[in-house]
Amino acid sequence: MYRYDDIDQTLVAERVAEFRDQTRRFLAGELSEDEFRPLRLRNGLYIQRHAPMLRIAIPYGLLSSTQLRKLGDIAHRYDRDYGHFTTRQNLQLNWPTLASVPDILADLATVQMHAIQTSGNCVRNVTADHLAGVAPDELDDPRPYCEIIRQWATVHPEFTYLPRKFKIAVTGSPADRAASEVHDVGLHMRRDAQGEIGFEVLVGGGLGRAPAIGQVIRDFLPLKDLLSYLEAILRVYNRYGRRDNIHKARIKVLVKSLGAAQFRDEVEAEWRSARADAPHLAQAEVDRVRAFFKPPPYESLADIDVTADREPKFRAWYRYNTRSHRVPGYRAVFVSLKAHGRPPGDMNSAQMAALATLAEEVSFGLIRVAHDQNLLLADVRQGDLYATWQALSREELATANIGTLTDMIACPGLDFCGLANAGTISVARNIQKRFDDLDYLYDLGEIEIKMSGCMNACGHHHVGHIGILGVEKHGEEWYQITLGGSVNGFTALGDVIGPSVPQQAVPETIERIIEVYRERRAESERLIDTYRRIGMAPFKERVYASRAEAA
Amino acid sequence: MRRVLKQREIVADDWRHFEADAATASHAPRLIVPLKELRANPQTWSAYEGPLGVRIGPADKVEDLAAELQRCTLIAIEFPAPTEGRGYTQGRLLRGRFGFTGELRAVGAAVKRDIIFALARCGFDTFEVAAGEDLAACAAALERYTVAYQRGAPGSPPLRQRFSA
To answer: pTM here?
Structure first.
């Protein structure tokens, strides 16, 4: 993985010193709340319902064992012994004190981490496919380019105060496990006829209010032009994005109001005009960064059958929680943060420490954060899988439910977030209870439930096969259910079934949707496929039938 | 007498703002005039004998300033609120694309120590800071970072940096 040089390390140290001074001035009453807000946000610090929340960047989802161990230490020392992994490859601490945040940031800097620009109206953490570098279907490893973008975007002076937040995702695979089409900018790696690396460029995707799918504004952007082109996009957005209404300030609104073609023309014109004064991405710099992402020293192995004569629990885990690897003899292993009864994405300090050690033993000391709130050991020898399963099981990190209904995405919701309308964690728990039987889950196949506690859509509900959105009605929590959303190579926004349902009715509603699916599915058809084939009507009818009719 | 941070030094401001500042005894003082006023009374201002500066707001397009770039030795850009980010691009374009080498001044209620470093990287060399802001602290803020990933605007102070132009 990338290692900081003196420039990187000095920059985070100077940033910590700056924020320490800003925090001191706020606590001394020298900065007003209004003045401090944008400064703390761009250092990852929210003031939440009960306490501050600190969002730590895990650039493109890659962690070393040393870093994960440090995150566990920080959660133990400054917080309540756990953290929450998010859909954008960040880790959130829910209970730090404001005064301790500069110390946390200084601790992070000792392991080459930071919380810079994880919030605020600026370029956010750059995300990537969690299977980058190991997926068999990948064109090239996107992470070197993510790291280059991370550096270019970090404390970028011109884009200090954009109209709104700005999220970039990069994928090297057609399966798009980075949800790139619902990002402000999505970059899809391509090769031209000469075999040179470049990117298809999408803009204007995003969830939240008025969700939109990104539109292609360039089929092929040569690598050397990556930064100058991003700078042109950001410059057009910084100049012309709306600043009068926070709900209309994302780049998707600008793209929509101009139309993708005119937006593209503006960007291309800016890009041509800026040629002489634009950042140049030198091949030497590309080579320098790429050298950090060389494949680990794999052994020459053959694929083996590791499930023969093993117990059914291990076989189920192997089937659901491991993925094929481009190198023979290896598998990628999901670390499930979706144990039933636990908030999705939560991990405690002891689990972090244990996983850090396990990764050193079986996966080159590296851990990935997946956008669906699980972790991943990307490079496990097949011969080590059984021992890995045993070790993960001891830490309750081996629930064999990846890709199933209970592998759901959920934001922290009303229990923590100052914006939420709804207690997503308790809804998740009730769904887990209702669908607790693993064999039943396996029979249902691949189902993605994504749940957000408010319109901001941190839980990506628009692109869930089943989406659940918390809404407030007369001071009560209600939930709007959608069907048919997806990402992963075929991006679609879900359709609303009908009127929202009260909290206690959510598991029942999901169950009725599942009933229709089980009755109507064709051989090996997933829920999403059945929905696309038969449409909304049968689902809607069953969901809103009286209990007697439904029975 | 107003003091400003100019070329990293705290100095007495030798410019006046049109109407906002009291008149001085001197004939045709250095005067910063809003773009709107310059455009409204072109004869008056083309006949003005002293040095002129132009003051622009966040929505003004720097591409439209060809005449002012000829006439004015100072451009003042407004930063009315901490979340207003267009002025950074205006400054960067004036320095990098339009070759403006005169005084580039940040003015407004948001001009405080926490944004001054970024403004300097975008080519601003003078800071007329918000009322009550500590100029010495602003001067210190210019030294806050010794490294940068991005290249600075032409004329901005050199740092150790990653990406060259």
So the answer is: 0.96
Query: Given CB atoms, is A30 within the 8 Å cutoff of chain B?
Result: no
Q: How far is B50 from chain A (nearest CA, A)?
A: 33
How many CB atoms sit inside 10 A of residue A208's CB? 19
Domains of chain A are: 6-110 (3.90.480.20), 134-291 (3.30.413.10), 312-394 (no CATH), 409-550 (3.30.413.10)
Average confidence (pLDDT) per 10 residues, chain A, 551 residues: 97 98 96 94 88 95 98 97 95 94 98 98 96 94 98 97 97 93 97 96 95 97 97 98 96 98 98 92 96 97 96 97 97 97 96 98 98 96 98 98 96 86 92 95 97 94 97 92 93 96 96 97 95 98 81 53
Q: Is A296 on the interface with B (CB under 8 A)?
A: no
B44's tokens: 């008056």
Q: In angstroms, what separates the C-alpha of B22 from chain A's closest C-alpha?
A: 30
Q: What three-state secondary structure class fits A503?
A: helix
* Six-digit token string for B92: 């960067």
B88 close to B120: Cβ distance less than 8 angstroms: no
Nearest CA in chain B to A5: B162
Domain B3-161, second-level architecture: 3-Layer(aba) Sandwich (3.40)
Determine how many CB atoms are found less than 10 A away from the CB of residue A361. Answer: 15
How high is the ipTM of this complex?
A: 0.97
Which DSSP string do the residues of A257-323 spell out, in sequence order?
Answer: HH-HHHHHHHHHHHHHHHGGGS----HHHHHHHHGGGPPP-----------TT--HHHHHHHHHHEE
Chain B residue numbers touching A157 (CB-CB < 8 A): 88, 92, 117-119, 121-122, 148, 150, 152
Check CB contact of B150 with chain A, cutoff 8 Å: yes
Whether the CB of B23 is below 8 Å from some CB of chain A: the reply is no
Chain B's closest residue to A227, CA to CA, is B163
DSSP codes joined into one string, A506-522: HHHHHHHHHHHHHHHPP
For A204-252, give the DSSP string. --B-SSS-B--EEEEEEEEGGGHHHHHHHHHHHHHHHS--S-GGG-SHH
Q: Please check whether residue A63 is in contact with residue A366, taking contact to mean a CB–CB distance below 8 angstroms.
A: yes
- Read off the pLDDT of residues A150-187 as tens digits, 9 standing for 90 and up: 999 999 999 999 999 999 999 999 999 999 999 999 99
Chain A with chain B: Cβ pairs closer than 8 A:
106
Cα separation, A405 vs A435, whole angstroms:
8
Position of tokens 């906002």?
B20
Q: Which positions in chain A touch B151 (Cβ < 8 Å)?
A: 279
Q: Flag if B118 and A7 touch (Cβ within 8 Å).
A: no
Tell me the C-alpha distance between A493 and A181, whole Å.
Answer: 11
